[in-house]
Specification:
The protein is mainly alpha-helical. It folds into two domains: 77 residues, Helicase, Ruva Protein, domain 3, CATH 1.10.8; 50 residues, Arc Repressor Mutant, subunit A. Helix content is 49%, strand content 4%. The protein has six helices and two strands. A two-stranded parallel ribbon has the order 1-2. Helix 5 packs across helix 6. The protein is flat, with a radius of gyration of 19 Å.
Amino acid sequence: MNVVRVELPPLRRRKEDIPLLVDQFIERFNRLQRKGIRGIETEALSLLMAHDWPGNVRELENVIERSFILCRDGNIGIEHLPEELTAGRRIVGKDSSIQSAHTLLDAQIIRGALERNDFNRQAAARELGIHKSTLFRRMKRFDIALPPQDGRSHRTKTQ
């Protein structure tokens, strides 16, 4: 029976839901684990907002649950997020957390644009609204490597 059909777009197309979902997950995990986590730091939420969430809401829930376990009290910070969201870098001090969050977010945005454009740097730069040479400099600064096959050549099927 298909009485009512409800189409729910993927989480990557409704990023505005992420803060509400995070708050709901924190509230639920506080209740279940009898903890007092107050919320999430702005920098950490920014990284969550920048992620494409291929696993949708369930993936977000798992990330918050993992972060919840690592966070003893206070707010969930960047240091509590998994490495795939923080580009494999760890934050060393609170003084540098805003700058580090900005750097991590920039690197993640560039990686996302490259992936969406099959690692075609010209197309990725166009999507980001920056010059190709600016993209090259930022890739070098963030140590973003390209796959052996670049995005300029498209694979064709041979029959």
